[in-house]
From TrEMBL:
GO terms for cellular component: cytoplasm; plasma membrane. This is Signal recognition particle receptor FtsY. The chain holds residues 93 to 392 of 394 of the full protein. One of its GO terms (biological process) is SRP-dependent cotranslational protein targeting to membrane. Residues 273-286 form the SRP54-type proteins GTP-binding domain. The gene is ftsY.
Length: 300
């Protein structure tokens, strides 16, 4: 968490500094409130949430008669944390059920960081003393299976793959079968992210899920979103949420953007918690998402 905070603080600096500068203005007048709202919108918090956060803050400042920048800062902190909702269950379910492994499907469009997240997540599971098998169900690009293979070798997890163009569902089935045979704790399935048509995507992810359910159950469907893609990323998220039941969001590339406000917007839109964040390309650059640590990093 200390590292998470340091990493986030680096990339969210512009966002936080803007807010803190405004809070230390001599007079908290209409212009300042408007500017705060603008900084929040620029950071991808979303128009509705930005306006609610500023309204909430204004009301509190007024009721409490607070003026010092320090006090206003802690009220803003409260307001931001409340909007991220600290009460949501953000645990990733990786525990096996008896002799059946937990199964996690990783979904999202190409390039958002699915394969990288699959590898990093396996690293966390193995680091905790558990076992994992990876399924390379993105069979449309040979490079995807290659890349997952490299991750498997790096973190010490077997990778189930087939030739390019093979049925993604059959790869998923084999991965779960292998997981059962080896008594593995968690099977992670890296899927293809071709957003060609909504029905195509729905058929494909639906089939992977149904086939997995012949052997075990799907415990998590993690939607991976690139934090740097803003509205475009949100549009993609909506399509995925329509075709499959998302249980959690992984927000990647938070290390390269000051637009961390997307956390608030995406949770609000999808009604699903951000569970993990990607903070770099390395094997240890995946962290559980913690609202308070996140907000503290912004307001550092
Ligand atoms: P996929 O097509 O969705 O499987 O995406 P990949 O896993 O291949 O990732 C695409 C690119 O994004 C790769 O160059 C990754 O190294 C990079 N990437 C993934 N996650 C992160 C992250 O959290 N931070 C940064 N900076 N880069 C990332």
């Amino acid at each position: 968490l200390v590292r998470l905070r340091a990493r986030l603080a680096q990339s969210q600096n512009a966002f936080g500094r803007g807010l803190l500068t405004l809070l230390s203005s001599d007079k908290l007048d209409e212009d300042v409130w408007e500017e705060i709202e603008e900084v929040l919108i620029t950071a991808d918090v979303g128009v509705t949430s930005a306006s609610q956060i500023v309204e909430g803050l204004r009301t509190k400042v007024k009721v409490l008669g607070t003026r010092t920048p320090g006090d206003v800062r802690s009220l803003l902190r409260e307001e931001l944390v409340a909007h991220i909702n600290p009460d949501l269950d953000r645990a990733v379910r990786t525990e096996p059920h008896g002799d059946r492994p937990a199964v996690i499907m990783v979904v999202g469009v190409n390039g958002v960081g699915k394969t990288t997240t699959t590898g990093k997540l396996a690293r966390v599971i193995i680091g905790d003393g558990h076992t994992a098998v990876l399924g390379a169900a993105d069979t449309f690009r040979a490079a995807a299976a290659e890349q997952l293979q490299t991750w498997g070798e790096r973190v010490g997890a077997p990778v189930i793959r087939k030739e390019e163009g093979a049925d993604p569902a059959s790869v998923a089935f084999d991965a779960v079968t292998r997981g059962i045979a080896d008594g593995v704790d968690t099977v992670i399935i890296d899927t293809a992210g071709r957003l060609h048509t909504k029905t195509g995507l729905m058929d494909e992810l639906g089939k992977v899920k149904r086939v997995v359910e012949k052997r075990s159950q799907v415990d998590e469907v993690l939607l991976v979103l690139d934090a740097t893609t803003g509205q475009n990323g949100l549009r993609q998220a909506r399509v995925f949420a329509e075709v499959v039941n998302i249980t959690g969001i992984v927000l990647t590339k938070l290390d390269g953007t000051a637009k961390g406000g997307i956390v608030i917007q995406v949770q609000r839109e999808l009604g699903v918690p951000v569970k993990l964040v990607g903070l770099g390309e390395g094997p240890d650059d995946l962290a559980p998402f913690d609202p308070e640590t996140f907000v503290d990093a912004i307001l550092e």
